[in-house]
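Appendix C. Worked example: T9SS type A sorting domain-containing protein
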Amino acid sequence: MKKTVLTLALALTLGAASAQNDLGINMTSPAAGSTVGPGVAFDFDVTITNVGTQAVTTNDTVVYFPLLNGSLLYTSQGGQQVPIAFSITGTTMNTSDTESRSISFGGLSINNGTAQNVDFCGGVLAFGPNWNNVNESDTTNNTSCQSIMYDPNGGTVGLAENVIFSEGSLTVLDGSYSDGSTFYVNVYNMNSPVAKVSFIDLTGRVVYSQSFQTQGKEVRAEISLNDMPEGILLAVLEVDGKQINAKKIVVE
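Step 2, the predicted output written as structure tokens:
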């Protein structure tokens, strides 16, 4: 009996050690050959699949984002240019589970852009207790791309909005943004005394975190990015120990 128990325990240990982290993304819109431009509305439709054996739990966060020719898209918030990224939290994704999302854009504008073919992609990554400091077994499926046409003569409408998140019954508005050297914390309608901001690199390592006191149901602060590694970071807002938002920023 003891031998059977030990053998079973060993099998479970080996099974846990061989769990593979692997998320894939499939972008179905904009479709290949379609046209985008200023004032030309389109949908950013993606399906994210857990193709590995390591589950995404409710404590993990999945971040998905559009890319244009390999670079992040930006929108205007408070007169600043903010990278566009979206998060999925509080969701369990076991092996082969999928999550589909659709984001509507009012248009796309490339500064000084001319009529051209561009690569429009959807990207995905995850971080959290089960995904920090690990390498995915396959990173080639972290993006899904289509070749589309950019028409600069479409109009003037673009995506320019804050994202509203729910904190219990109270609406929390996160208008935080980065200019590449400073991260401006702007959180409104807070019902908690403290908000925490953490910066996480693409390996899942927390490079910096700081907590701020709420004043008049608002949190306003500035965080210097000068001592942080250059490149892409995730700025994660936490309230009462829960992740409210994750924004992809670029440190210059």
